[in-house]
């Protein structure tokens, strides 16, 4: 029997953590303290490259020559111009985010080493950076196909990216936000759209990227688990970060899609805004928060045994 993307990803994270994660829907608290998390919640496109609180990406530079290896279906030329423009912008944004993720994982690898993380986590982080290179190239090629012109990545600003000393609590909380939340939701979105995409080649590409991103999300959860074992006093801060996610989700409100061609967008790997909101809503309450509860409960039990 086929499982939903939520079920598949839940099983993946449960396997990585070695804990049972029940199929339940966690009710989010209703505190109005949303801050900036609500905005970040809708911008989950993998692991961001954050410096001084700002997510950095490289600009895309247009090229004169266009040589594409990717072959889209014949009806691509018949897409309405506004749809092609929206799809080009969508895939350009993903390409920039995946490109920045290469730098994010490169930095994360060095941070893992600086806090003495297990070698397997370092290996997984190095592999994730390689994955993101392929993802960025694939997304860029899609952006080029829909835009009808060649594109390439400009320089990425890395100033001050590794200037500060690495603190375990700071690194753990960043991993909660960027990995356990951001990458998990990004993976769910990719798997959802892959299951609905009518272009088989594009669907296979999206599912391949989703499978890679699932490993990246599992890496984040494994690191947070290790950090909690390393320093049990982090439990309260990690709990607060997940609770902030839940509060932000409640405060974000519904999004009503204004796209005139929602089905065409879905066929070409782009969820309309209202459907993306539904996927995120499902992912927060049925995936991220149950996984967080299982992780934190396990950490609390481990702390009690260690006393």
Description:
By secondary structure, the protein is mainly α. The chain contains 9 helices and 4 strands; from the N terminus they run H-H-E-E-E-H-H-E-H-H-H-H-H. 65% of the residues lie in helices and 4% in strands. It has a two-stranded antiparallel ribbon. A two-stranded antiparallel ribbon has the order 3-4. A hairpin with a 2-residue loop joins strand 1 (50-51) and strand 2. The longest helix has 34 residues, at 81-114. The relative contact order is 0.19. The model is unreliable at 29-42 (pLDDT under 50).
Give a concise summary:
With 307 residues, the protein is mostly helical.
CATH architecture assignment name: Up-down Bundle
Might you state the CATH topology name? Answer: Ferritin
- Which residues form runs of ≥5 with pLDDT under 50? 29-42
Question: What is the level 1 CATH name?
Answer: Mainly Alpha
- H/I helix tally: 9
Query: How many domains is the backbone divided into?
Result: 1
Series of secondary-structure elements, N-terminal to C-terminal: HHEEEHHEHHHHH
Net shape: globular
What is the terminal-to-terminal distance? 44 Å
Main sheet strand line-up: 1-2
Radius of gyration: 19 Å
Instruction: Let me know the number of strands.
Output: 4
Secondary structure category? mainly alpha
Largest sheet: 2 strands, antiparallel
User: How confident overall, as mean pLDDT?
Assistant: 85
Portion in strands: under 5%
Helix content estimate: 55-70%
């Amino acid at each position: 029997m086929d499982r939903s993307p939520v079920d598949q990803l839940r099983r993946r994270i449960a396997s990585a953590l070695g804990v049972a994660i029940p199929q339940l829907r966690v009710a989010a608290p209703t505190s109005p303290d949303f801050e900036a998390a609500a905005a970040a919640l809708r911008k989950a496109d993998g692991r961001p490259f954050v410096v001084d609180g700002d997510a950095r990406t490289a600009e895309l530079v247009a090229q004169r020559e266009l040589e594409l290896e990717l072959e889209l279906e014949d009806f691509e030329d018949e897409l309405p111009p506004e749809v092609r423009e929206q799809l080009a912008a969508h895939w350009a944004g993903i390409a920039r985010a995946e490109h920045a993720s290469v730098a994010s994982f490169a930095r994360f690898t060095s941070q893992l080493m600086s806090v003495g993380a297990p070698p397997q986590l370092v290996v997984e982080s190095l592999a994730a950076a390689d994955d993101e290179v392929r993802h960025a190239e694939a997304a860029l090629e899609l952006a080029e196909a829909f835009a009808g012109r060649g594109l390439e990545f400009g320089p990425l600003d890395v100033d001050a990216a590794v200037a500060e000393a690495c603190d375990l609590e700071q690194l753990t909380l960043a991993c909660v936000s960027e990995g356990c939340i951001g990458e998990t939701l990004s993976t769910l979105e990719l798997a959802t759209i892959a299951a609905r995409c009518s272009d088989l080649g594009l669907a296979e590409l999206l599912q391949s990227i989703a499978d890679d991103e699932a490993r990246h999300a599992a890496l984040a959860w494994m690191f947070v688990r290790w950090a909690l074992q390393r320093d049990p006093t982090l439990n309260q801060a990690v709990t607060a970060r997940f609770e902030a996610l839940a509060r932000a989700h409640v405060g974000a409100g519904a999004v009503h899609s204004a796209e005139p061609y929602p089905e065409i967008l879905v066929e070409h790997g782009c969820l309309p805004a209202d459907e993306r909101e539904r996927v995120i809503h499902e992912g927060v309450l049925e995936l991220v928060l149950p996984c967080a509860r299982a992780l934190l409960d396990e950490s609390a039990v481990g702390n009690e045994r260690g006393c």
